[in-house]
Specification:
Length: 337
């Protein structure tokens, strides 16, 4: 198939592009390479896919990779670009779109709300319109466990009511789910929303806890432990996430309204302090801990009900000790620690 992957220079988008290419699909990766975190990491991911920094810096120009037998092109573009994005859809005639591009980060959305509306709402509308007008068979898009807000449920299910987001980031992701349903209902193309639960692993985001903690500990700085450590997360290793996306890709929703919403998580939450212990164990270093109150927009716990995805064959199989070790091995090599 020919597949568009937005956010291709991002953490999940990079891993997905790599996997799709290895399986023989033709992939066009799209990203605006914004400076929300270190752009050099984004350029390094693209370099792994065979696209040089020099080529990746060119706006709205297809840069071709020669690393894979299947074709990979990279295009630097904003999702909210109402001129060039529709033209890209028209020119390429994608079979499937995987929209992983978005402005990420719960806390950052409190400081920079406009960026989230531009990328996550206006940009997502442009993606939906591109799919509608160009006969795309299936749209997969990134939602988030953040939509559950301060849910009191023991396990988060897609059937839960999620009408009270506590960050603008979560509100934009909830809006994506509503918009996708509307387009599936009106125009009949398949959409699948993927509620990701705390994804981690090699090439991960520098604003995430694993990256922040590892960097601080190796630099002999204290780590910030919010809510005094009384937090738990459904930490999900990147390989399990990509496996879940592949399963959804191979099983598009059907019916009068071909719409699906699913959690992709580990299904077994771990306490934040156990996660820190796994980092310390892999590094063989003990971190200095600074215990702090809860941050605005954050939640104390997440726990994914993955039963619907498991019916399609999904199973998260990577424990935190193994996953954390893989990340730290990569971190040491990449940053020459």
């Amino acid at each position: 198939m020919k597949i568009l992957v937005t956010g291709a220079a991002g953490f999940i988008g990079f891993h997905l592009s790599k996997k799709l290419l290895e399986k023989g699909h033709d992939v066009i990766g799209l990203d605006n390479i914004n400076d929300y975190y270190d752009v050099n990491l984004k350029y390094a991911r693209l370099n792994e896919l065979g696209v040089s920094k020099e080529d990746a810096e060119k706006w709205s120009v297809k840069a071709e990779s020669e690393v894979y037998q299947s074709k990979f092109y990279f295009v630097r573009m904003n999702l909210e670009d109402r001129e060039n994005l529709p033209q890209l859809f028209k020119d390429e005639e994608f079979d499937v779109v995987c929209n992983l591009g978005a402005q990420a980060g719960v806390r950052y959305s409190i400081e920079n709300p406009e960026t989230y509306i531009d990328s996550n709402v206006v940009g997502f509308l442009n993606i939906l319109e591109g799919c509608r007008h160009n006969k795309v068979k299936h749209l997969l898009y990134a939602s988030s466990s953040s939509v559950y807000g301060e849910s009191k449920e023991e396990i988060f299910s897609v059937t839960d009511t999620v009408d009270h987001p506590i960050s603008l980031y979560a509100a934009t992701k909830k809006s994506n789910e509503l918009m996708a349903f509307t387009y599936s209902h009106l125009y009949g193309f398949a959409t699948t929303g993927l509620r990701f639960f705390t994804v981690y692993g090699p090439w991960g985001r520098p604003d995430m806890a694993l990256f922040l903690f590892t960097k601080a500990i190796t630099e002999n700085r204290s780590i910030k432990v919010f809510n005094n450590g009384d937090m738990s997360r459904d930490f999900t290793y990147i390989d399990d996430i990509i496996n879940g996306i592949e399963i959804v890709l191979d099983n598009p929703p059907v019916g009068n309204v071909p719409y699906r919403l699913t959690n992709i998580g580990n299904g077994e939450p771990e306490s934040l302090l156990d996660f820190i212990n796994a980092i310390e164990g892999s590094l063989r270093m003990e971190g200095k801990k600074e215990f702090l109150p809860m941050q605005p927009g954050d939640v104390p716990r997440t726990s994914a009900d993955t039963s619907e995805l498991e019916k399609l064959g999904y199973k998260s199989s990577t424990g935190i000790k193994t996953g954390v070790k893989h990340f730290i091995d990569w971190y040491k090599e990449f940053y020459k620690v």
